[in-house]
Amino acid sequence: MFQISSSPLDPAALRRALLDPRAGACATFEGWVRDHNESRSVRALEYEAFGELAEREGARIVAEARAKFDLLAIACIHRVGALALGELAVWVGVSAAHRGAAFDACRYVIDETKARVPIWKKEHYADGATAWINCATRGDHASIAISP
Amino acid sequence: MPSISIRYFAILREQRGLGREQLATAAATPEALYEELRARHGFTLPADRVRAAINGEFAPSTAVLREGDEVVFIPPVAGG
After folding, report:
1. Average pLDDT of the residues in B8-30
2. pTM of the model as a whole
3. Is B80 a domain residue?
4. Taking CB atoms and an 8 Å limit, are A135 and B44 in contact across chains?
5. Of A126, B53, B56, B74, which one has the greatest count of Cβ atoms within 10 A?
6. Alpha helices by DSSP H, chain B
7. Quick check: B9 contacting A, CB < 8 Å?
8. pLDDT tens digits, one per residue of A37-65
9. Domains plus CATH for chain A?
10. Percentages helix, strand, coil for chain A, rounded to the nearest 5?
11. Cβ–Cβ of A47/B79 closer than 8 Å?
12. Beta-carbon neighbour count of residue A36 at 10 Å?
């Protein structure tokens, strides 16, 4: 299961979907909104997704994880919209008979999601500037595209 | 000229100033269409940093565009 969500994520509810009497391990990853990036002070984040393709590519990543690792249940859900500092931006959860598969699959899903799923992040800085992450072009500050 | 529907997200949506438009274009491929739009609207991302999707699925930048296709240009992603 891979979903894009415009409402806040509830880890306790998400975790329940992983329960399985055969499971001996559960690994989860939570991506949180952090107050800094590359030495700039961040006050809020905005995520935007190309919903249909994000969910389709995400489902492919989940299917790959199931094929690579011996899993019982797996889910990944990513927020879109305006997020405050400390809010949960992405949640990955995996259950498996043994911890190795759970850890490895959890890592695989978050790494592939960050690299492949059409989701974009805009940072709002303390000084009022904003930037779309990874969209910098020559002449921009560091690796981010700043707009005033 | 074929009529193509274009959707914009993130930095491209902001630089274009809208989320979607319908366009009659002579561009035969997503690559050519992006260059046309980039010249017109001043998109900062060069073509080699933008991927294309046609009708909701990733597509090569050299795919052939057809009447009624929906094209999305995908800036570098940054989920997580």
Report:
1. 97
2. 0.93
3. no
4. yes
5. B53
6. 10-16, 30-41
7. yes
8. 989 999 999 999 999 999 999 999 999 99
9. 2-33+49-120 (3.90.1170.40)
10. 30, 40, 30
11. yes
12. 12
- Reading chain A (148 residues) residue by residue, the pLDDT tens digits are 999 999 999 999 999 999 999 999 999 999 999 999 989 999 999 999 999 999 999 999 999 999 999 999 999 999 999 999 999 999 999 999 999 999 999 999 999 999 999 999 999 999 999 999 999 886 565 445 656 5
Distance CA A102, CA A106 (A): 6
B58 with A47: Cβ contact below 8 A: no
How many domains does the structure of chain B reveal?
Answer: 1
Q: How far apart are CA A25 and CA A31, in angstroms?
A: 20
Residue written as tokens 């805009």? A122
Which CATH number is B67's domain given?
3.10.20.30
- Dist CA B67 CA B4 (whole Å): 6
Give the length of chain B.
80
* C-alpha A97, offset from chain centre: 24
Asked if the structure places residue B8 within a domain, the reply is yes
